[in-house]
Amino acid sequence: MYRTIKIKLDKSNELIQTTRLWNAACQDVIDYGFVAHDYKKTRLNKATYKDLREKYSTLPSALLQTASLSSILSGLSDSTLGP
């Protein structure tokens, strides 16, 4: 059984900035995976984590880890399906 819960969040600049940075980190992982033709989570994480950590130093490491996983689960995995 699933429930939908509606909550109101303050649209603080900090929340918006964090979301934008996380989206940019996801895009960096997608770009790397596409160019390198590498779609494995462990290898993508190993190849991109250090650079992401430096580039997005204000993001918590947990968000950078989910950026790799989310990239694989969303756009990056679609590119492996072919026509």
Mind explaining what this structure looks like?
This protein is an all-alpha fold. The protein has a domain at 28-78. The protein contains 3 helices and no strands. It has helices at 13-36, 41-55, 61-78. Helix 2 (41-55) crosses helix 3 (61-78). The protein is globular and about 40 Å long. The termini are far apart.
Number of strands: 0
Distance between the first and last residues' Cα: 36 Å
Q: Report the average pLDDT across residues.
A: 83
**Unreliable stretches covering 5 or more consecutive residues:** 79-83
Task: Kindly provide the radius of gyration, computed on alpha-carbon positions and rounded to a whole number of angstroms.
Answer: 15 Å
The main sheet comes to: none
Q: Which band does the percent of strand residues land in?
A: under 5%
Order of helices and strands: HHH
Q: Give the structural class.
A: mainly alpha
Helix fraction, binned, reads: 55-70%
Question: What's the overall geometry?
Answer: globular
Tally the helices: what do you get?
A: 3
Topology of this structure?
Blueprint: H1 13-36, H2 41-55, H3 61-78
Helix pairs in contact: 1-2, 1-3, 2-3
